[in-house]
Amino acid sequence: MPPLILELPWVEKYRPKVLKDVVGNPDTISRLKVIAKDGNMPHVIISGLPGIGKTTSIHCLAHELLGTSYSEAVLELNASDDRGIDVVRNKIKQFAQKKVQLPPGRHKIIILDEADSMTPGAQQALRRTMEIYSNTTRFAFACNQSSKIIEPIQSRCAILRYSRLADAEILHRLLEVTAMEKVEYSNDGLQALIFTAEGDMRQAINNLQSTVSGFGFVNEQNVFKVVDQPHPLVIRSMLVAANNGSIEESIAQLDKLWKKGYSPIDIVTTSFRVIKGLVEINEEKRLEMMKEIGITHMRVLEGVSSYLQIAGLLARISDLS
Amino acid sequence: MPTDIASFFGKKSGKPKTKRVAESSAAGSTVKKQKKNTKPKDVEEFTDDSDIIEIDEPVVNKRPQKSTTRSRAAKIVEDDEDDLEVIDLDDEPKKPVKKPAAKKAPNKKAAPVKKEAPAPKSLASSSKKSFTAEDALAMIPDCELPEAQAGEKVNFWAKQSELKTHATDENFTKPRGAPDCLAGLTIVFTGLLPHLSRDDCEYLAKQYGAKVTKSISGKTSVVVLGEDAGPSKVAKIKALKCRHIDEAGFCQLIEAAPKEGGEGNEAAQKVLEKRKEEEAKAKADAEQEVRESEMREKAKRDKLLKIQKLRESDPRASTDTYVKSIDRPDEEKLWTVKYAPTKMSQICGNKGQVEKLKKWLTNWNSLKSKGFKYYGDSFPASLISGPPGIGKTTSAHIIAKEMGYDIIEKNASDVRSKNLLNQTIKDVLDNEGVMGFFSKKEKTTSKLILIMDEVDGMSSGDFGGVGALASFCRKTSIPIILICNDKSLQKMRPFDRVTYDLQFRRPETKAIKSRIMTICLREKIKVPPEIIDRLVEYTKNDIRQIINLLSTVSKTVPELNDKNFTEVIKGWEKNVAMKTFDITSRYLSSQIWNNNSKVSINEKIEYYFDDYQFAPLMVQENYLNVNPQKAGSKLESLELVAKAADSISQADLVDRKIHSADQMWSLMPLHAVMSAVRPSSFVHGQVMGRINFTSFLGNLSKGNKYNRLLTDLNYHTKLRTLTNKSELRMNYLNLLAQKLSVPLMQKGAEGIEETISILDNYYLTKEDWEYVLDFGVGTNPYKLDIVQKKIASTVKSSFTRKYNASTHPVAIYVVGTAGVGRGGASSAKPDLDEAAAEDAEENNDEDDEEEQDIKKDKLIKQKKAPAKRAAKKTATKRATTSRKKK
C-alpha cells in the first residue's frame, strides 16, 4: 500500500494569504491595501458573485491589520453558525464590548460572512451596535446580493462591489498554480477552464484540480469531460444559426453536441443562459426565444427528453424569424 | 500583470474579455463636441430686449396684471404635484413669480420666422447688453407642442406612437458648452428625448449651472419636451405659455449660451454669487471646526499632562475618571463619528422638527403637571420617524444632552420582550438620575430620559414588547423618545394615539452640501460642488453614506472630478430590494423598455426575483390598466393585451410545475420571463391610475369559502337531491333561492310558513337560507343583498322567531362545519357549545350580515339560559362580540 497522501484542495492550498496576492478588482483591492496599512478600517460590505475573493480579501485584511492578535480580536460568523437575533444580541454584542489591547488605529473586527442569509431582525439588532462600539469594533460583511442587507446597515458601511474576474486574471492565477503543481496542460485546456468558470476563480481551480486528478493532462476535451457542460460557444452558434433561419447548420451543431453525449437538459439550460446575454438579437425576439427554450425545458423535465424535442425547438426558433 | 489573454490564445480566445473592453471604451468616449448645423454665431446680432433677459429674475417690476393670480395657481398646482421643486429662498415671497416674458412677445411684435414655431427670435432686437443665456434660448424656436385634450387621451397616444421614429443616431454626441452657461435658467425635462436619457439631461443641465425642476411653474424658463410627454404637462405648458424646445434645441442652447450666463445677466450672477458664498461659508465653518478640534486636542494634552503630574506626585491617586474622559484620537474614529454633530446648530436639516422636539422636552414637566391631553404636543412620549442616515438618533441624543438629561438607551440589540421590559424599564420610569450627584458642576438636577431606538426593529423575539412599550408611554414619569424608520407599519399602530409624532425628512441638498464641503475642506479632499450634488442624489440624501463613501474613496483618490466620478460612484448606489409596487410599476411603465434604456433582460428578470411571489400576481392584476405604448390603434392594443394574457396563462402552467409535487425549481427563470417580463414587454406604457394590490388572494379565499358552504349545503340536502356539488350549484341552488325568497318578498309574514316548510323539506337550516341566497351572482334577482332589502325587517325577525320556535328535522349531522349545532335547537348538546361558538364567531368575521345573527343569538341565549350556565356564558360572549363588531 502506498502511503496515504493527505492534500488540501487546491482552492485552500492556494488561497491568498495577503492582499497583495488577491486577484482582480484592482481598485478595490488597492483601497483595502491602504486601509491595511493605515488602519482605521471603516465598516465594509463586500458584495459580488461567488468565487471572486470576497471572503478571502476580508480575511487577508483582518490578518494584515491585526497580525498576531487575530485570534483574539476577530469574531467570524458565517451561515453555518447560528446568527439569529439572540446571537447578535449576546455573542456579537459581548464581543464588541470586550477589551483587547491593540495598537493604535487597529480595531476588533467582526466578520459576518454570507450576511445576506441573516434575518432582517438580526440585521436590525446590529444597527446600533455598529454605531455605539464603532470606536473599538468594526464590521465586515460579505454577501452575494447587497440588496438582502437592510438599508440602514448599507448606509453605515462602505460598500465595495467586486466584479467578475477578467479572464486574463484567472489565467494568470491558473498559470501560477499549474507551475507550482507542475501540471501539464495545453492552451485550449486552460481556455476551456476559463470559459467554464465564468469569472469564478474557485470554480476554475476546482475544475483544474479535478481534471488533473482525473486525467493528468489538461486539455479541452478532458476539461469538458470533467465539467460536463455543453460548450457555450457551440450552443451560441447553434442558436444564432437557428435564428438566421439556417436550420441545417443549426442541426449540425446540435448533432455535434449530441454525439458528445450531452443530455438534452444540459443543452436546454445552457441555451437559456446563453440567450439571455445574446445582445445582438433584439430584445423582443430574445424573449420569444426564451419562451420557446423554456417551454422545451419544461417538456424535457416532464420526461420527453429526446433528440426530436431539441430539434423541434430549433425548428420553432428558426420559424420565429 | 497577467499576460494578455488574447495574445496568449491567439485571436479565437477571450471573447468576453475583449467585448467588455469595447463596451467600456465606447461608453467613455461619448462626450465629443458636436457640430450642429444651426448657427449660434448669429448671436451677436441680437441685442436688446430686457424683457427676455430677465426671465427668471424675481426683481422685475414690469409684469402683466394677470400674472399674480396665475402664478398663484401655478404654485398650487406645483404643490399638488410634488414638492421636488426647490424654491429659491432668496425670492421674496410677496413678489409674485414673474411669468416668462418671452411668451408675451409674439403678441406684441412677433413676426414668426418659422411657420410652426411662434419664434421669439424676432424679439431679439437691439440692446447694449451683451449676449446672455436667455438670448440664446430666445433664438431657438419652440418645438411643436403635441395636441392633447384631456378627453382624447387615446388619440394622443395613438398619434404619439405613429410619430415615433426612434432615432438611433450613432453620430449623436453630447453637447458641450461654456462653463456655467446655463446659470440662472430653470429647466424642466419631460417625456422621452431621442438620444439623451433623463439622467444625462439633468446632469448636463446641472453641470452648466441650470436649475432642474420636475414640475412646470411660472418660474420655469424653458421646458425640454420629448416624446410621450405627459398630457398634463403639455396642458400646463399651454396654460403658462412656457418656452418649450426639443432635444436639438437643448443642445443648441448649451452650445450657444455664453460663459457664466453672459455678462450682465443678473439671475446668473446671483446664482454664481450664491454658490461662492456657500463655498466661503463652508470654508469658514471648516476653519472654525479645525480651531475647535485643535482646542480640544490641546485640552486633552493638558489633561494628560495633568494626569502624569498627578501620578508623579501621588501614585495612588485614582486617575480613572480622567482616563475615561480621554477618548481615542480623532484619526482612529470613523468619519461619521468624527464629524457627528455635537451641537444642535450642527444638525443637518429638519430644523423645524428638531426645534419642536426641543420645545416638547422643555415643556415636558409643565405638560405633565397639567396632565397630558394627547393632542398638539401634549404627549408623554414622542415618536421620531424617517429614513436611515438622516440624524434621528443623533438629534434625540444631542437634544437630550443639551437639556441636561441622563440618557437610557435601548435599541434593537437589546431584548425587548414584554417580560424583560417590565423587569428592566418599568422601574426606571419613575426613577431619578443619579449621575447628577457625581457631576462636578452643580445645579444639574439630573433628569432621566428613555430613548427607545429602532422600535420597528422589534421582532418576533420581542414578544409583546410593542404593547408593553405603548402602555409605558401612558404612565411614564420621565420623557420617552421613540425612534423608528417606518411609522406606517402595522406594529407601530399602538403608538399612534400616545406619542407626539415628529417625522424627519431627508435633509435638503443644500444643507448636506455645506456640511460635506466643510468635511472635504478639513480632510483636504477636492470635491467640486456639482459632484457633491450628484453624490447627494445617488445616495438619496443619505448624509452618513456620503461621509462613508468619501472616507473610503479618499484613501486612494485625492480628488473627485468629472472623470473619475462615475467610476467611483458606480458601486455605491444603495441596492435595496424593490417593494412589490415598485417592481410592478417598473415593469409596466415604459421606462425600462425604451431602446435607450440600459436595463438588460437579465436585470428585468432580477426584478422578478426581488419578490417572486407577488411580482407575477401584481403584473397580472395591473396589466390591463396600462395604455400600451406599442399600440397605434385600439385593435393593436387589444392584440397586445391578448398576447400578454396568453403569456400569463402559460406562466400559470409553468407555475404549476414549480409548485406542485414536481418541484421543478429550475423553471423559475422561465416563470419570471413568462409571468412578468414578457407580458409587460407587450403592454408597457402609461399606467392609468394607481397600481392595485393583487386581488387574487382575496378572491381565492372567497372561492374557498363558497366551496365550503357548498359542501355543507350538499350534505344537508343530500337525501333530497341525490346529487354532487357542482350539480347542486348548477341546477338546484338558483331554483331554491327563488323558492326561498319569493314568498317572503311577496307575501311578507304570511310567506314564512311556506319558506320554513321548504327548508325543512330539504333539511336545510336557517343559516342555509342565507347561504343559498348568497350564491346569487351578477344580475340574479335573488341575490342575498337584494332579497334582504326587499323583506321588511319585521318579517325577518318574525321569520327567525318562528323558525326557532319549532323543531326541524336534521338529516345529516356533521361536526365542525359551519352552522352545525344550531340546526335543531333541541339537539344541541352542551359540550358542543364551545365549538359552535367559535364557529359562529368565525362566521361573523366572514359575513357582513350581522343583524340576523344578533337577533338569533339573543334568542338562543334566552332559550338556553335556564338550561345550562355554561351555555349562557358562551352565548353572552357571542352576543357581545357580535354587538361590538357592529
UniProtKB/TrEMBL annotation, chain A:
One of its GO terms (cellular component) is DNA replication factor C complex. One of its GO terms (biological process) is DNA repair. It holds the Pfam family Rep_fac_C. Residues 40-184 form the AAA+ ATPase domain. Its main location: nucleus. Coiled coil: none annotated. GO terms for molecular function: ATP binding; ATP hydrolysis activity; DNA binding; DNA clamp loader activity. It is found in: Nucleus. InterPro entries: AAA+_ATPase (IPR003593), ATPase_AAA_core (IPR003959), DNA_pol3_clamp-load_cplx_C (IPR008921), DNA_Rep/Repair_Clamp_Loader (IPR050238), P-loop_NTPase (IPR027417), Rep_factorC_C (IPR013748), RFC_lid (IPR047854). Keywords: ATP-binding, DNA replication, Nucleotide-binding, Nucleus. The keyword Nucleotide-binding applies. Belongs to the activator 1 small subunits family. This is Replication factor C subunit 4. The lineage of its organism: Eukaryota, Fungi, Dikarya, Ascomycota, Saccharomycotina.
UniProtKB/TrEMBL annotation, chain B:
It is found in: Nucleus. Residues 119-128 have a biased composition (Low complexity). It comes from the Eukaryota. Residues 96-107, 861-886 have a biased composition (Basic residues). GO terms for cellular component: DNA replication factor C complex; nucleus. Residues 177-241 form the BRCT domain. Residues 78-91, 833-852 have a biased composition (Acidic residues). One of its GO terms (molecular function) is ATP binding. One of its GO terms (biological process) is DNA strand elongation involved in DNA replication. SUPFAM superfamilies: BRCT domain (SSF52113), P-loop containing nucleoside triphosphate hydrolases (SSF52540), post-AAA+ oligomerization domain-like (SSF48019). Residues 1-45, 57-128, 273-297, 824-886 are annotated as: Disordered. Keywords: ATP-binding, DNA replication, Nucleotide-binding, Nucleus. Belongs to the activator 1 large subunit family. This is Replication factor C subunit 1. The lineage of its organism: Eukaryota, Fungi, Dikarya, Ascomycota, Saccharomycotina.
